[in-house]
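Hi support team,

I submitted a single chain yesterday and got back a structure, but I'm not sure I'm reading the token output correctly. Could someone confirm the output below corresponds to the sequence I sent? I've pasted both exactly as they appear in my results page.

Thanks,
R.
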Amino acid sequence: MTRATGTVVLGYGVTGKSVVQHLRAQGMEPRVLDTRAQPTSTEGLGNVEVHWQVQNWPAELLAETQQVIVSPGLPLHHPLVRQTHAAGIATASDIDLFMAKVGAPVVGVTGTNGKSTVVSLVGHLLQAGGHECVVGGNLGVPALELLEAPADIYVLELSSFQLAHSAHLALASAGVLNITDDHRDWHGDFESYKRAKERIYVNADYCVGGLNSDCSVDVKVDMSAPSANRWGVARRENTPWLFCGDIPLIAVSDLPLEGRHNVENCLWALALVEPWIEPRHAAQLLVGFQGLPHRFEFLSGPTDIHCINDSKATNVGATLAALEGFARDESLILIAGGDSKHADLAPLGEAMQGRVQRLVTLGQDAATLNEVASANGVLWQQVTTMDDAVSAAFEHAKAGDTVLLSPACASLDMYANFAARGDHFKELVSQHTKAEQVALRS
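Hi R., thanks for writing in. Yes, this is the structure output for that exact sequence:
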């Protein structure tokens, strides 16, 4: 292999590894800078030169570098990224490398909440509609690894981190599902976060936006009544249906996912695939879709108690969407808490009123959630572990109640990721359910 002329990869996480492997497959050997300590396993690096525990560029390396591929874990304000820009060195992302190589249309989806579900729905619809389709990006398989599976259409979940580091992408279809307060620790402020999300539209062929989108879009999606160039929900024969303009598509009761927010997710997916699949046909293809783990996932719980694993709700907007799908009848016991990432938790207060009979909090920012609950007349109980949280929830739950894990916070203060948190919750619910069954038989 030959040394990639002046090419450096910043960050050797999941994305950085995919970039290095992509470049090596083309006969190049980039260099790598990483802020972390050298891991025990460096499989896949080969003879690649890596500088570990770096917070500032080595002067000699900076002088001979012509291109930098930045991993999404490094924010724009990180010293390594700032020094790269100050030196006038061209930067790119793994998504830029992917777009330069892909030879088929690409659908891009971003948003604070719902993007993993919408991307999965889009992939399902395209595949069911006869297209060879692969899905990845911020969800699951890194974008560059998708190139190993030739397809007619590629579907990417794109994070604000990826979009901030990328050029304007030539997407065939693009959507910003929603933008609510999140990731201030990475972007610095909400406006920067919003601008990063909206970059997805700049060079896209077909743009789908929300009703209040500030950007110029081709069609809009909203849960209110539809109109021309607008997808929405209206009543037909006294039942709610999804509509494309004045065309009825499918009854809400026939959708494969529960929850008001998932009705909107289905609308987005249908709108995003319209360039390839006629709306009425696409609506019928929704049937058979299986929901994703940890995203408003219904569980088998103790008798007459409903349990929902919504561990993917790692920010306030996601938990608001989950809560607003329930009537105000005090039927919920909410388990929440973790690392809020400096977000404002106050909006949860009004949403909990009348819906949450008891809030069980845990994690780094539990005390802040307790204050929000108290200010809104919601009873709360703080615990130390998820074991204690589930036990407390079932102590207070009665027949017909719902125990909802929707943390509104990231999991990294207690777990490796949101999936590990959700898996632990599911395991504990299963244990309580089995214990009840044993007691009933004895």
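A quick pointer for reading it: The radius of gyration is 23 Å. Let us know if anything else looks off.

Best,
Support desk
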